[in-house]
Amino acid sequence: MTKQIELSGVNKYYGAFHALKNIELSIEKGTFVALVGPSGCGKSTLLRSLAGLETISSGDLKIAGELMNNVPPRKRDIAMVFQSYALYPHMTVEQNLTYSLRIRGVPKAEAKKAAEEVAATTGLSQLLGRYPRELSGGQRQRVAMSRAIIRHPKAFLFDEPLSNLDAALRVHMRKEIRALHDRLGATSVYVTHDQIEAMTMADHVVVMKDGVIEQQGAPLELYDRPANKFVAGFIGSPAMNFVPATVGEDGRSLAVDVGEKQTILLDRQLEPGRAVIAGLRPEHLHFVEPGQGVFRLPVGVVETTGSATYITTSTAAEVTIVEISRRAVKTGDIIDVSVRPADVHIFDEKTGLRI
Amino acid sequence: MKRLLSSVRDGRGFDIVLVAFPLGFLFLMAGLPLLYNVLMSFQEVDMFSLGTFLRPFVGFKNYTDLFAQPETWPILGNTAIFVIGSIAGQFLIGFGLALFFWVNFPGASWLRGLFLVSWVMPGLVVGAIWNWILSGDFGVLNFILKESGIISGNIFWRSDPNYSLYAVIMANVWLGTAFNMILLSVGLASIPGDLYEAAELDGANAWQRFWTITLPMMRSTIGAIIALGLIFTLQQFDLFAAITSGGPNNSSNVTQYWAWDLSFRQYDFAKGATISVIMIVFVMFAAIVYVRSTRHEVRG
User: Fold this and answer.
1) Cα(A293)–Cα(A291) distance, rounded to whole angstroms?
2) What is the CATH number of domain B64-295?
3) What ipTM describes this predicted complex?
4) B93 pLDDT exceeds 90?
5) B299 to chain A: which residues are within 8 Å by CB?
6) Higher model confidence: residue B257 or residue A315?
7) Which of A76, A78, A90 sits opposite B216 (nearest CB)?
8) CB–CB of A314/A282 below 8 Å?
9) CATH of the structural domain A241-348, one choice from 2.40.50.140, 3.40.50.1110, 3.40.50.720, 3.10.20.30
């Protein structure tokens, strides 16, 4: 596997503001990488730095093995799909697609042929003569992607490309982008604030916060073994429950502070008496017969979606439970819930790091 | 009666009143004088028939007489040079400044606003300033040109028939540049920044971005500013009155100044009206270009 994009020790300052902090990231050829994090975490800055629209303050940025720190965007051979699509409004779809070819002096007939080929794969053949203002949101999105594809660039960059589409179209385009990536054997970097987009589309997810990479890895790795409380809370929906807890005398049980203190067993040995935070995913909490569970919890709010029922408890530290059995539950009921010891995530109370 | 009253207060009657009022105003204050001007160009007007409304009809006699005069074609030529020279100067310098301030260095918008000073000044004041600058014996323009070695002797800008028209063009370019710059700045500001980023990633250098993004996106603004420029330069009167009075020997005379001169100094109202009618044709053309170019605005 060759490294298509390599970042080492990359920092970016805007005046005194430290936007990217010591970024280490290497992307192999053909992988789909998602940069995900809350607004202002630096994911867009990182993407724009890859494109060359921002210059990095220090560190090394390599694309296909070449140092690109001070190379202008037009010489980086990278294509980007913008959140606003940034289609040229005064050009038809065909002219939009062939713009980069015409700039490079590709003969007209050849450019036209390339546009027709790409349009055929993205379903734009009938729309080549239209102007962007005459297209729907989904069609514009396709034009923006086709404009990137036609160049056969070294990498594709996506800056929240689906955020202007409605929910149904978003789910559809998610699959389409991923399928396109696989067909082209492309290297893609995809910025999103939506962890579901990141989890479903990417081979490699990079979670960022405040300019720092909190954790990176395969989607399930992040889900199963979040490195810290932030990643644990960010990945997975509904979000993980965090409850204060204390390790028991024997070091193999956890006194959890929900409502009345309740005890859950652990699958590992910890220092007795240590104050920690227990992370419990809503989908890992299951209903059991009365007396069989580790928790007895009063029901606060019940939300039904049809496929699953979301139950929020009325305890001080609220706990959310996702239940797929259709057992009738109503506000005020007391339910018995259990969790497998392997499904209990434990984080340090102060640092938030995984224990 | 009651129904009519309620219709005027809230209904079709109200709409009609709203339309009728400005239409009536326009007809009375602009339409009638314009039509009367056209009518007058087909009449024989002298000092004794000035007070009457219907005067002897002479057909196209005023027009044929006008074009038989030896100074007519040179003055029309001067007008063309004045319009083209002024618009070209105002547009090119204005566009250059707009692009310069577009870089958005600290204080750019503040300085850009300051440029409007030249535009808000009355034409007669601008004329007076340029009279000093252009002065043959002690003018600063001659001083600069001489010191930089471009000319060896003084040029008498206002009284030399070879230069008098260009003296007024210079003053008019100075007067109109700021307005061009402001309108073009607005046009530039309305181009989304991500288009340039997309074009940059598509491989376009600065020059290519200017030709393929900036200029096409500015098409309607440019059409509007040139049409407005044609209208404004054909209206420019004060500078001629202040700087050359159309002289010497009509060398800097243009139609708008000549029309006034014929009507109100030589009392040949028919000829004055005739020139005005010819100008109306050009201004109407510019107005149509202006309306069309602002209607066809490109929106993403």
Assistant:
1) 6
2) 1.10.3720.10
3) 0.84
4) yes
5) 89, 133
6) B257
7) A90
8) no
9) 2.40.50.140
